[in-house]
Recover the amino acids of this structure.
């Protein structure tokens, strides 16, 4: 069992790292088997959080209104991670969001990690669901606030330790850290035409004056333009 690692989780506005945004990062730094440091922060998205995402995550637009931007938060999180092995449940999902955000800001974030979902799929084939919630219920691991980033990260760390205790000696390969490969491509930057339209619209409407046009992606710009032109849709 690893004694030192980073367990983390992100909450997002959707499922695509190329199109959607991180709205919360929660992580714990484990040293010699004990939690040494925590990372818990909201990120203010460029676009409003939709109601269905609020229902899933419990994170509302009011909660992120005073949060910092990804340009401020992502570098801090990368520093927090140091060169540690990463642990997550369905790790590639969370990693892909961080990886794409880091790359869009000019940082390199290539790591190795251990996915508790992959482990569970091998050692718990009998369970109908391998979700974090189902596995926590199976092992009686308490998660005080499911679908909030830090609490999910903490539950994942406990799940890793528990499954390692029961299965690592018999299946050491399942618990070996592997290179993380982000397969989803980065969304291209917003086009000059989109940026020109956005500048005109934001000036006309008097909104989003702090929008960072330099890091806006093509899909984000499209969704933002649509939200301005069709505010009630």
């Amino acid at each position: 069992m690893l004694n030192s690692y980073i367990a983390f989780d992100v909450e997002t506005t959707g499922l695509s790292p190329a199109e959607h945004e991180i709205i919360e990062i929660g992580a714990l730094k484990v040293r010699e088997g004990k939690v040494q440091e925590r990372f818990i922060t909201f990120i203010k998205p460029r676009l409003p959080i939709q109601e269905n995402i609020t229902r899933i995550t419990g994170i509302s637009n009011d909660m992120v209104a005073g949060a910092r931007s990804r340009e401020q938060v992502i570098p801090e999180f990368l520093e927090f991670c140091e060169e540690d092995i990463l642990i997550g449940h369905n790790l590639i999902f969370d990693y892909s969001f961080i990886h794409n955000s880091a790359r869009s800001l000019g940082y390199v974030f290539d790591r190795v990690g251990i996915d508790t979902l992959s482990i569970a799929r091998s050692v718990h084939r009998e369970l109908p669901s391998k979700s974090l919630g189902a596995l926590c219920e199976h092992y009686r691991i308490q998660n005080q606030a499911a679908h909030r980033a830090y609490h999910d990260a903490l539950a994942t760390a406990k799940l890793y330790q528990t499954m390692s205790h029961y299965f690592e000696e018999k299946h050491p390969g399942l618990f070996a850290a592997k290179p993380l490969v982000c397969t989803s491509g980065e969304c291209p930057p917003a086009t000059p035409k989109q940026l020109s339209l956005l500048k005109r619209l934001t000036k006309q409407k008097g909104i989003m004056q702090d929008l960072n046009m330099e890091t806006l992606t093509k899909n984000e710009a499209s969704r933002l333009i649509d939200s301005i032109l069709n505010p009630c849709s």
